[in-house]
Write a structure and sequence with these properties.
With 312 residues, the protein is mostly helical. It has one domain. Helices cover 83% and strands 0% of the residues. The chain contains twelve helices and no strands. Helix 3 crosses helix 8. It starts with a helix and ends with a helix. InterPro entries: EmrE-like, Sugar_P_trans_dom, TPT_transporter.
Length: 312
């Protein structure tokens, strides 16, 4: 009996450690992106995203092929790879747009907009699967959107271009989620998140490389010149890129050892924690109206999750 209790306690501590790692990596990469792109003045969001995807490519292969964290799944056909490439392109758009938005918006407002993901997911799912939700599900999305509208009106650091980029990133993230369920729905094509990242990340690098060359000319030379003045930029980029991979790894492990529903609940709480931490670190001004708007959005997301859970 004592051994069972000890084993259960050990398992709970392990799960708690995974959750803390997931929170730390998620919030850490978000805050470091904000610091690099806004406070530090490293104005190359596409190159930064390419660094993230390069690290994800190398570390994914190491984790699967060498460490055997999960069995390696193979791409069975060109059609399946074409589907993965399409998801990768949308994923690139989402991450790049999100990083661009961090140049202009505080993390707190960025997270408020990001919380509207369920709204876009429901819209895209309805359009693409022609399968609507219940009226109660749609009703819960009203406070989600209303909260962001209120938060936008009360945001002292509101920036229209940053807002558009952040909304685009949120919509692209939702679109990828819906398309992933449609494109890789057959048993022969399903990939776990770690294997999907293994194939998506290098494909993303191929998409981002020409975009970086054309839109952020001589970024490597400029980064090296910056490194000669302040070598910390190299360590920032390396640590930030490794952290971006660890976000995906910890996400997978938390889902594996808990459940997708638990992950959703933890994700809602993570957004609120990220808001508080970012305000404490960056000390960006925030209004009572903005906080009320964000709170309303979070309440809407929680209600949406509850209605979806009961509908299953």
């Amino acid at each position: 009996m004592a051994e069972k209790v000890k084993g259960r306690a050990s398992s709970q501590m392990f799960t708690l450690g995974l959750v803390m790692s997931w929170y730390s990596s998620n919030i850490g990469v978000l805050l470091l992106n904000k610091y690099l792109l806004s406070n530090y003045g490293f104005k190359y969001p596409i190159f930064l995203t390419m660094c993230h995807m390069s690290a994800c490519s190398l570390l994914s292969y190491f984790a699967i092929a060498w460490m055997k964290l999960v069995p390696m799944q193979v791409v069975r056909s060109r059609v399946q790879y074409a589907k993965i490439a399409a998801l990768s392109l949308i994923f690139c758009g989402s991450v790049v747009s999100g990083n661009i938005s961090l140049r202009f918006l505080p993390v707190s407002f960025n997270q408020a907009i990001g919380a509207t993901t369920p709204f876009f997911t429901a819209i895209f799912a309805c359009i693409m699967t022609v399968r609507g939700e219940t009226w109660l599900t749609y009703a819960t999305l009203v406070p989600v959107v209303a909260g962001v509208i209120i938060a936008s009106g009360g945001e002292p650091s509101f920036h229209l271009f940053g807002f558009i980029m952040c909304v685009g990133a949120t919509a692209a993230r939702a679109l990828k989620s819906v398309l992933q369920g449609i494109l890789l729905s057959s048993e022969g094509e399903k990939l776990n998140s770690m294997n999907l990242l293994l194939y998506m990340a290098p494909t993303a690098v191929l998409f981002l490389l020409p975009a970086t060359i054309m839109m952020e000319e001589n970024v490597v030379g400029l980064t090296l010149a910056l490194a000669r003045e302040d070598v910390r930029i190299i360590w920032y980029l390396l640590f930030n890129s490794a952290l971006a991979y660890f976000v995906n790894l910890s996400n997978f492990l938390v889902t594996k050892h808990t459940s997708a529903l638990t992950l959703q609940v933890l994700g809602n709480a993570k957004g609120a924690v990220a808001v508080v931490v970012s305000i404490l670190i960056f000390r960006n001004p925030i209004s009572v109206t903005g906080m009320l708007g964000y709170t309303l959005t979070v309440i809407g997301v929680i209600l949406y999750s509850e209605v979806k859970k009961r509908g299953k």
